[in-house]
Amino acid sequence: MISAPRRWLTFMSIGLLFIAAGTLLAQQRRSRMGIPSGDPRSFQDSEQTPPWTNAPGFERDVFTFARIRYSEGGRGFWGRRGGRWATDYPDADLNFSYRLQQMTSMKVHPTGVVLEISDPELFRHPFIYIVEPGNLTFTDEEVPILRRYLLNGGFLMIDDFWGDDEWENLADELARVFPDRAIFDIPRSHPVFHSVFAIPDDLNLQVPDVFRGTQSQFTGITWERSDAQQANFRGLNDDKGRLCVMICHNTDNGDGWEREGENQYYFREFSEKKAYPLGINIIFYALTH
To answer: Is domain 38-43+60-288 annotated with CATH 3.40.50.12140?
Structure first.
């Protein structure tokens, strides 16, 4: 079974949870001196995420953002900083982890981890994240492991892929994991959209990259491809009817986390209103259902 952190919680309104634009992460300049070699913060492209520590001896009693390193089209993993699996890494993981511990009473690991599905540590993490799966290929070894992980309480969030061809690749790979069930559209009334923040049913949750998002105040365009104008949220349930896979298609929550400090309009319209509330909702749903 998946080991999960203890249940917590203090919730506040979204207006009180987010800091003002004047104190965005980009303005919280901190020295990188003292960061150990190999620490994800040493690879960070944007301004340093504010550091924090948890009580000694409770390292496993915290939530840890776990990103999955996967192979593409029969090729290998490419390495720590290469390949689509590493899109927005490590900034998205670091910023999201910071906001999660800042805005809730959850204890959060400050740097997160990168895992392969075959890693024995996988089953210590109740939540895993896959980004840009348009060319993802699960190995024959990974397929039964991922199925067992999800049917034993694990949760997979898939994010940042666009258009019909990338969708077809992901659907084919998930069919290898769950040949006995169909992907379905998640209704906006589902608890995953309301577990912490009550996201309005009529709010367009599409999050573009920071360039398109910044320009959208003039163009109105938030999609990356002509066949990706509508954000889709789809899923798979486990044997008990619990959502165990959430697929965020035609949207890029990771950029909303990674690039939050680069433009005030982008932060207000996409990071604050969409990417963070949805991401936090997904985490709390995964840990409480």
So the answer is: yes
